[in-house]
Amino acid sequence: MITLNLLHPIESIPIQTWKFNSEPVIRIGRSGDNDVILYSSVVSRYHVELHHHSQYWEIVNIGANGTYIQDQQIDSERVQNGVIIRLATAGPKLQILLDGSEAITPSLRDITTAKPTSLNNPAASTAPTSPTAPIDDRPTIMSRK
To answer: Measured between alpha carbons, how far is 81 from 66 in angstroms, rounded to an integer?
Structure first.
């Protein structure tokens, strides 16, 4: 299983989560046919792919504005659990968690309501989840249904 957390741009806490079980490739970008859709002017229609190999996941940049890990632009990189990637130099950040690991940072829901989320509830469904609404209620991000 692989979990993607969209991080709040200022507080670096998860504001939206996607979970995938057995997909060989996860596509991220602005186009409506991606697995993870991010509406940002700096995100390419097809920006980055996560490829599942037999023993590991790989991040592959395919976007015009680049993909970054710790401010270093990458073409492809093996996924390390908890890694945070940024789409474009000032675009959205995604945290990648492998095999049901818990988030390194608490979710906004954890902070505001102190209720368990699927990230720290092992009994939660492992199917792809619907995203939570953005904090400011703007329709900036959505998940493919």
So the answer is: 21
